[in-house]
Design goal:
By secondary structure, this protein is an alpha+beta fold. The protein is 34% helix and 27% strand. The strands form four sheets. It has an eight-stranded antiparallel sheet with strand order 12-11-17-8-9-16-13-14. The chain has a seven-stranded mixed sheet with strand order 2-3-1-4-5-6-7, with helices on both faces. A hairpin with a 5-residue loop joins β2 and β3 (92-103). α5 packs across α7 (171-192), α12 packs across α13 (288-295) and α14 (415-428) packs across α15 (450-463). Mean pLDDT is 88; it is low at 48-58 and 68-74. The structure holds guanosine-5'-diphosphate.
Length: 472
């Protein structure tokens, strides 16, 4: 990976050919190592010092996340990568790639965030803990990513170090365990993927769509990488026996294995939208907009979706994050929100880097964007004002609100302010909902589970102190 300055990033966002762009998510069961992996990538990109990667998890930018040690918000990370292509004669050519990663939370309470990140992505790295194997949230994530949002999967089996140094398994036993995981993932992918890809979307060691490694120790390999370096998996056992993780980090770096898989197997937006659009958009595919959407054409009519509302933990300012699917979004655009039936001016446009915005004047189709100017519920579609188009299909969420809890302002006079604050947080997470009980003057919050409600209330309470009733 190469560290780029702001003007280089800006130019890449606007100019790099579609073929060299990749937009993807990393999806995993909680604690399987997604944040550690994302942070490793950040460290490599120069956004974080190598020593802190693995300890302080930058993608968990919210204090609440740091404290609880779970990823709640989806963070977007932009990376550039020089891909070395090696042909059958061993000739090397280098190509520049631009990656936009939507990091997603692993806890069920934030499944809405996952679904929306996947709506904006073309592929997903399914990350599985080698020891635990496939877990319930792995299954849900594969269903959401591959099934609902047509994101093409690759597999990263993480924490392989534990099989060797903790379980002290023999090589054959390790390979057996890895095979079981790859097969389980594959069986589910086959079951839920779009019908036309049933024989194509498998993850296999043979075609290098499975990587094995340790995010904590910073290494991973695919079969191709081992072959190119004239190595066998035995080298990993050897290096752990010699306690030489440094060798593994230097010779089999994690980023190479993951990003090579992404380049080779995850499609660029112009390919992905050919089958993704008919799944998520019910408009006329033969119309000008339909054709532009299928190609992710930057010169077509503007159509995009807001997939995430990031509320800064300190300033409480809302940043809207989303994807342009067709046309080009400009920093002086006035857009029309399809569901809200509302005109809104963009005040600042750019790309999200963890918690900051890098200003970019134009974001073409097939890219994620971040903007300031207004707030609306996550999941909203928009077109350029005056150029009406059909919005996108609603995002399918994996869970329904079943827990409720009433809150009321400590100061009765704060009721209307409380209403505004609650409304904003529900916009950021529409898997929760609220209503005002007229008799008691309490606001009843409904959510997927007690943790989701608890975190919501903590945030609301920072802005308007509230009394809280027991959960129902
Ligand atoms: P997330 O919930 O998926 O984001 O998981 P985290 O990245 O927060 O990791 C959960 C725990 O697993 C942390 O204690 C990490 O240090 C640990 N961990 C992550 N990757 C590895 C790995 O490759 N090997 C080992 N042994 N531990 C790991």
């Amino acid at each position: 990976m190469k560290v780029k300055n702001a003007s280089e990033i800006r130019e890449m966002i606007m100019e790099i050919p579609m073929e060299n762009r990749r937009v993807f998510s990393i999806a995993a069961h909680i604690d399987h190592g997604k944040s550690t992996t994302a942070d490793y990538l950040l460290a490599k990109a120069g956004l974080m010092s190598a020593e802190t990667a693995g300890e302080k998890r930058m993608t968990d930018s919210d204090e609440e996340e740091q404290e609880r040690g779970i990823t709640i918000f989806t963070s977007v990370v932009v990376l550039s990568y020089e891909y070395t292509k090696i042909d059958s004669d061993g000739n090397e050519t280098k190509e520049q790639y631009l990656f936009q990663i939507n990091d997603t939370p692993g806890h069920l309470s934030f499944t809405g965030e996952v679904s929306r990140a996947l709506r904006g992505s073309d592929g997903a790295i399914i990350l599985v803990d080698a020891l635990e194997g496939m877990m319930t949230q792995t299954e849900t994530n594969i269903q959401l990513a591959v099934g609902e949002e047509a994101c093409k999967p690759v597999l990263f089996i993480n924490k392989a170090d534990r099989l060797i140094s903790e379980l002290r398994l023999k090589p054959d036993e390790v390979f057996g365990k890895l095979d079981v995981i790859a097969n389980q993932v594959n069986n589910l992918v086959k079951k839920v993927c779009p019908k036309e890809f049933r024989d194509k979307w498998s993850v296999t060691f043979k075609d290098n769509s499975v990587a094995v490694g340790s995010a904590k120790d910073g290494w991973a390999f695919t079969v191709e990488i081992l072959q190119q370096k004239g190595l066998t998996p035995a080298v990993v056992f050897e290096k752990y026996q010699q306690d030489d993780k440094k060798w593994l980090r230097e010779n089999l770096p994690l980023d190479d294995a993951l990003l090579r898989m992404v380049v080779q197997h995850i499609p660029h937006p112009g390919i992905s939208q050919q089958y993704k659009i008919p799944k998520i958009w019910r408009g006329d595919l033969n119309s000008e907009a339909g054709q532009a959407l299928l190609k992710a054409d930057r010169d077509g009519p503007l159509l995009g979706m807001i997939t995430k509302i990031f509320i800064d933990p300190r300033s409480k300012r809302a940043t809207l994050i989303g994807r342009v699917f067709s046309g080009t979004l400009k920093s002086d655009d006035t857009i029309y929100l399809v569901n809200r039936r509302q005109k809104q001016r963009v005040k600042r446009l750019g790309i999200m880097e963890i918690t900051d915005i890098l200003d970019v004047p134009e974001i073409p189709a097939g890219n994620l964007f971040a903007l300031y100017g207004f707030i609306c519920p996550a999941g909203e579609s928009f077109y350029r004002d005056g150029e009406p188009l059909e919005g996108f299909e609603k995002i399918t969420y994996a869970a329904e609100p079943v827990v409720s809890r009433a809150i009321s302002p400590k100061k009765a006079a704060d009721l209307s302010k409380l209403g505004d604050v609650v409304r904003t947080w529900i916009m950021a997470d529409p898997t929760a909902s609220y209503n005002l009980d007229d008799k008691t003057k309490k606001i009843v919050l409904e959510g997927i589970d007690p943790l989701q409600i608890e975190i919501l209330i903590t945030r609301i309470d920072e802005q308007v102190p509230v009394d809280i009733s027991d959960p129902v």
